[in-house]
């Protein structure tokens, strides 16, 4: 197995490229923030982010391209990390989960929900409500993506404590993981109660936390000497 040595120029270059790829992926995954600058016609309080790139939406290509870029960067970075960085069980799980997240995010972008029902544009047999995408194959890819990134967040946070590595994830990364977990619980509980409970806001906080965590992971990779991936 080829490994990157911490004192080599090649090792520094690999870590820098990996860090940039992961951080840029995190930034691209926050493209939904553009909805506050663009006239999407959606209310952030009671709409899901999947609706931004639903078929027929005016800025579908923009948001779809950003998600595809996110997924492609993470697939490439995860595969590179598994091949080039020294291996540890927990980090292997983390990179594997990020690989799945990247692939599922690409699928998310390529398999959008078909329609957003409105009074002026009914969707016929298309399901209505806050979660129309839950009746679509998009629901499967979204579920896989969310579960995969949570596995990655947990695995890397655990690795940060277990192996004494990735110090930024021990504090800031863990805090972001807690926020993402709380908003996920908010969504799961509120979805079974009458009313919408600002679920659109909850999802935006959840996805925003995931984006920030990816940026932290990129910074952690850049700041951590590669030999620490194998330290006891």
UniProtKB/TrEMBL annotation:
Keywords, in A-Z order: Membrane, Transmembrane, Transmembrane helix
Pfam families referenced in this protein's UniProt entry, alphabetically: DUF998 (PF06197)
Chain segments annotated as transmembrane? 12-34, 68-85, 97-120, 140-161, 168-189, 201-223
Superkingdom of the organism of origin:
Bacteria
Q: Which InterPro entries does this entry report, sorted A to Z?
A: DUF998
Protein name per Swiss-Prot or TrEMBL:
DUF998 domain-containing protein
State the organism named in the record: Rhodococcus wratislaviensis
